[in-house]
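JOB MANIFEST
job_type = single_chain_structure
chain_count = 1
residues = 280
[input]
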Amino acid sequence: MQKTFTEFSTNAILKIGDEEILQPYKLAKQPDLYTFIQTGNFKAEIMVDNIPYYIQPNSILVLTTVQYFQFISGEDLLVYQFNREFYCIKDHDQEVSCAGLLFFGNVHIPIINLNIEEQRKFNMLYEVFVDELKTKDNIQAEMLRMLMARFIIICTRLLKAKEGYKETQKSSKIDMLREFNMLVETHFKMEHSVSFYADKLFKSPKTLSNTFAKLNTSPLQIIHERIILEAKRLLIYTDKTAKEIAYEVGFEDASHLSRLFKKYTALSPSDFKKQLQKAF
């Protein structure tokens, strides 16, 4: 089952339904849609950037538009997908925007476990979504956006509670991590130095390093891991050569990417590609 809302004037898209929505992702691809997958009484299995994830029953997993996603198995799912035109162009508080905590405030893919009361709230919200999708009038789009904002606010609150983001001091660190991640996502193919991002955030590189150390990471590590992730995506999902990939992620000399790639994976890009070919 799938219900779709489209808005011709803005190219906005909202899709809501069950695992049927995920059938086009039996082969890995970038969805170009922000995606929430909510499990019911059964677990689901997916692959994100060629890494398997097992979503436990009564949980919500959040995906961005840039990840390569593959649906392996799952039933009794509730799935929400929307594009930037539907939600991201609206003014939202930074915590619940498309640059917010759920999408760019984490080192890992967010998975939210739901208790019985939380399950009830999300199931009720799903029913309201479905009812609103049946209501065709001139305020339908705004109502659907309000419901999605509510959905994202509840998810954000639950994630903050789960990760212990209540303290003001830690929240400020998470905000900085989120802003840094957004900047890296925008500029990582051209800018590899911490100082570039520090300048954008009006911080010193040392301040960034000290702040991120308390979150068990570092600015340079985030930059490097994003470069390596992109290189892996291109090696897995395209036929580009290691030299072409190096150039795409901002290296004039392919050997520079090779050294960085080997540091994080213990393999050169070409060896990584060979391993993939053997696996298939």
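[summary]
Residues 130 and 189 are 40 Å apart (CA to CA).
The chain has a mean pLDDT of 87.
exit_status = 0
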